[in-house]
């Protein structure tokens, strides 16, 4: 732990939005936690802006580690056009990390962010110390090219029932799942001022193209990834089927797997306390 004098005690919901120019494109990000230590870089899901990171997870991690959450190119208040491929998002993320002056970081990639994290570590293994892959899957993974066809009916159901589609997409329809969904969605509304710009529909659709392409892409050689990886998901993920988490854990030589019971794609949000303590222990090892 760093000394209190070195710790930025700002909470996620009050963290200022910063920006940095990376090769002519402005990327927006928020940073909190101690000044010293290997930073944890957070990469988020399809359609997510800065306000879609779970405050409990960010604050939990920032209690002992510098945490940086960033928007992809063309998303929220970040400049440029959203890329059509995961590979381009990974190149942007590498350039962003380097622009901030870091030589080594830990990554937490959720869903689409987990695709990006895998590509980063394959491209630049020396930049990454440890990785957490949550609610995600490998290139060419089972059902990933069907994310759109699985999601659209539930997105429409959200519109028709005046609910955030994540209520249906990220959680099971059990009493547990519904309770967790309500709690998570209310946490996302806690920040009252200086909220990020919502994602534009064009960026949303470009990201979906990138997800489909990842689902159809040839398998990558994950056996070359020697870094420690924690794979986490709900046991009933219908967006990126949970079988993909098992596949990742099997193919990564230095991986451990956590599956949360009666939980969907948003398993780490439903079990945020357990996830934070597991992530803590994994990153501190």
What is the topological layout?
Elements: E1 7-8, E2 18-22, E3 25-34, E4 40-43, H1 55-62, E5 67-70, H2 86-99, E6 105-110, H3 112-123, E7 128-134, H4 147-160, H5 166-169, H6 175-187, H7 201-216, E8 229-234, H8 243-251, E9 255-260, H9 267-270, H10 272-284
Parallel strand pairs: 4-5, 4-6, 6-7, 7-8, 8-9
Antiparallel strand pairs: 1-3, 2-3, 3-5
Helix pairs in contact: 1-10, 2-3
What does this structure look like?
- The protein is of the alpha/beta class.
- It has a single domain (4-284), classed as Rossmann fold (3-Layer(aba) Sandwich), CATH 3.40.50.
- The protein is built from 10 helices and 9 strands.
- The chain has helices spanning 55-62, 86-99, 112-123, 147-160, 166-169, 175-187, 201-216, 243-251, 267-270, 272-284, and strands spanning 7-8, 18-22, 25-34, 40-43, 67-70, 105-110, 128-134, 229-234, 255-260.
- Strands 1, 2, 3, 4, 5, 6, 7, 8 and 9 form a 9-stranded mixed sheet that branches.
- Helix 1 (55-62) runs parallel beside helix 10.
- The radius of gyration is 17 Å and the shape is globular.
- The two termini are 14 Å apart.
- Residues 1-7 have low confidence and may be disordered.
- It holds the Pfam family Abhydrolase_1.
- One of its GO terms (molecular function) is hydrolase activity.
- It comes from Bosea vaviloviae.
- InterPro entries: AB_hydrolase, AB_hydrolase_1, AB_hydrolase_fold.
């Amino acid at each position: 732990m760093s000394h209190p004098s070195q710790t930025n005690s700002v909470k996620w919901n009050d963290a200022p939005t910063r920006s940095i120019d990376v090769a002519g494109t402005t990327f927006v990000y928020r940073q909190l936690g101690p000044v010293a230590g290997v930073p944890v870089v957070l990469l988020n899901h399809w359609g997510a802006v800065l306000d879609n990171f779970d405050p409990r997870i960010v604050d939990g991690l920032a209690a002992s580690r510098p945490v940086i959450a960033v928007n992809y190119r063309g998303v929220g208040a970040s400049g440029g056009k959203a890329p059509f491929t995961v590979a381009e998002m990974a190149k942007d993320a590498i350039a962003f990390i380097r622009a901030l002056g870091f030589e080594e970081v830990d990554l937490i990639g959720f869903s689409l962010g987990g695709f990006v994290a895998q590509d980063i570590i394959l491209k630049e293994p020396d930049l990454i110390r440890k990785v957490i892959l949550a609610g995600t899957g490998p290139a060419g993974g089972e059902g990933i090219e069907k994310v759109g066809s699985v999601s659209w009916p539930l997105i429409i159901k959200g519109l028709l029932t005046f609910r955030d589609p994540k209520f249906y997409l990220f959680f099971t329809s059990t009493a547990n799942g519904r309770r967790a969904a309500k709690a998570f969605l209310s946490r996302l509304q806690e920040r009252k001022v200086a909220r990020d710009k919502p994602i534009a529909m064009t960026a949303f659709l470009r990201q979906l193209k990138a997800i489909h392409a990842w689902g159809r892409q040839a398998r990558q050689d994950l056996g070359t990834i020697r870094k420690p990886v924690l794979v986490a998901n709900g046991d009933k993920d219908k967006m990126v089927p949970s079988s993909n988490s098992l596949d990742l854990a099997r193919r990564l030589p230095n991986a451990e797997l956590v599956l949360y019971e009666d939980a969907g794609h948003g398993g780490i949000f439903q079990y945020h306390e357990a996830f934070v303590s597991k992530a803590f222990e994994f990153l501190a090892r």
